[in-house]
Write a structure and sequence with these properties.
Helices cover about 40% and strands about 25% of the residues. With about 260 residues, the chain is α+β, with helices and mostly antiparallel strands. It folds into two domains: about 140 residues, 2-Layer Sandwich (Fructose-1,6-Bisphosphatase, Chain A, domain 1), CATH 3.30.540; about 110 residues, 3-Layer(aba) Sandwich (D-Maltodextrin-Binding Protein, domain 2). Helix 1 packs antiparallel against helix 2 and helix 5 runs parallel beside helix 6. It binds D-MYO-inositol-1-phosphate. The site of D-MYO-inositol-1-phosphate has 13 residues, from strand 3.
Length: about 260
């Protein structure tokens, strides 16, 4: 797809940051045996990636605002447009040498995500979409899965770690969903979870406690691939509430019924 100028800036920037992160990823294994360990190195790589992205986007569109996971918050001269960026989604995977993480860049206009890019440098998979223009992975058009029998469907989620409060609810979700479906995955990068729903690799995804940067780009990619995305709590603001549920069209209702205890 020949995307807009904004989309091209987003993809070029994601590739640039992704290349640098990939180099850092190659070093993580060696750092695991060093005295200080890989933690500091990875947070530095994460912050560096955000700086690279912020500088490239601000240079291309100096009036837009910027919200990034690593703490950058810039109020733009144009209050209607802002970038929402996770420079490294799947940080824990990266830290452990697991090859499943991504750069995520979204463009919001008047409170709506209008373009999104999720780049997985390890697999060289670039997922992208613009409102009204369809969703793509590299050169291929994306379409959510066509499965319509729950027992054949795979879903993904995030498991609350390190004492996060929503563990009991997640356990209940799993107890209700697992007997009815073909499996649940926890791959550790919410942006890629959304991209994989768009690509039809699994039928649905839900998670609580996310941040805007974990899901912004994925929302438009899933919608443009024909999927349904909603806040986990109906009526809430999807980006600020932190809870998201999405699926292909035939599975959305039965899946949401299980997760929302409907
Ligand atoms: C995390 C990942 C993970 C999700 C966590 C997020 P980060 O993002 O998306 O899958 O379960 O809630 O915080 O910290 O790696 O950018």
């Amino acid at each position: 797809m020949a995307g807009s100028a904004n989309l091209n800036v987003m993809m070029k920037t994601a590739r640039k940051a992704g290349r640098a992160l990939l180099k850092d990823f190659g070093e993580v294994e060696q750092l695991q045996v060093s005295a200080k360990g890989p933690g500091d190195f990875v947070s530095r790589a994460d912050r560096e990636a955000e700086k690279t992205i912020r500088e490239a986007l601000m240079e291309a569109r100096p009036t837009y605002g910027f919200l990034g996971e690593e703490g950058s918050l810039i109020e733009g001269e144009d209050p209607t447009r802002r970038w929402i960026v996770d420079p490294l989604d799947g940080t824990t995977n990266f830290l452990h040498g697991l090859p499943h993480w991504a750069v995520s860049i979204a463009l919001e206009h008047k409170g709506q995500v209008v373009a999104g890019v999720i780049y997985d440098p390890v697999k060289d998979e670039m997922f992208y979409a613009e409102k009204g223009e369809g969703a793509w992975m590299n050169e291929s058009r994306l379409r959510v899965s066509g499965r319509r029998r729950m027992i054949e469907c795979i879903f993904a989620t995030g498991l609350p770690f390190g004492g996060r409060p929503d563990l009991p609810e997640t356990i209940t979700d799993l107890a209700r969903l697992l007997p009815a479906c073909a499996g649940v995955r926890r791959w550790g990068a919410a942006a890629l979870d959304l991209a994989y729903v768009a690509a039809g690799r699994y039928e649905g995804f839900w998670e609580r406690g996310l941040h805007a940067w974990d899901m912004a780009a994925g929302l438009v990619i899933v919608r443009e691939a024909g999927g349904f995305v909603e806040p986990l709590v109906p009526g809430a603001d999807i980006l600020s509430s932190g809870g998201v549920i999405c699926a292909n069209e035939p599975m959305f209702e039965p899946f949401a019924k299980i997760i929302r205890r409907g």
